[in-house]
Amino acid sequence: MKVHEQIKLFRKLKGWSQEDMANKLEISLNGYGSIERGDTDISVTRLEQITEVFGISLVELFGCDEKNVFNALGTNNGTQNNQYYGSTNPDSENLQLKYELENQRMLNQQKDKEIELLKEVISLMKKENV
User: Fold this and answer.
1) CATH-assigned architecture of domain 3-129
2) Is 20 strand, coil or helix?
3) How far from the centroid of its chain's Cα atoms is residue 9's Cα?
4) What pLDDT is stored for residue 83 in this prediction?
């Protein structure tokens, strides 16, 4: 499952609309919609913000797939309390390590993109100051 699909899944598990998420992230509804559709690259900062809103870690966001089970149990101060349970597969530790490795790879790719963008900005700024 791709990250934008996982974000949509967590949002639905929380019982929130796209508008709710956009408000929580303080972005436009169209901006949030493009995240869920996978039309935009999500920065590490935005991913951290999204996981904070969900009350989960990046590992949980990247680690969810159809082999994992999500149970929405009870309520907590009027809000839904979702708990994440890993797969009961005997190889779940290897699977978790696979997801953590993939998380790091994706985070590094995003970081590299941001570094390249900053290098371009610095280069342009230097040219303007010459």
Assistant:
1) Orthogonal Bundle (1.10)
2) helix
3) 11
4) 41
**What are the tokens at 10?**
């967590």
User: 69 - beta bridge partners?
Assistant: 85
Domains in the chain: boundaries: 3-129
Rounded to whole angstroms, how far apart are CA atoms 88 and 68? 8
Residue that has been written with the tokens 């972005």 in this structure: 27
Q: What is the pLDDT, as a whole number, of residue 25?
A: 95
Q: Is there a contact between 14 and 82 (Cβ–Cβ < 8 Å)?
A: yes
- Going from the C-alpha of 44 to that of each of 50, 71, 109, 110, 114, the distances in angstroms are 10, 27, 10, 7, 9
CA distances from 79 to 23, 86, 114 (A): 17, 23, 36
> Residues 34-77: pLDDT tens digits?
999 999 989 989 999 999 998 888 887 877 544 443 433 233 33
Residues 6+ apart with CB under 8 A from 32: 18, 21, 22, 25
**pTM across the whole model:** 0.51
Beta-bridged to residue 85, according to DSSP, are: 69
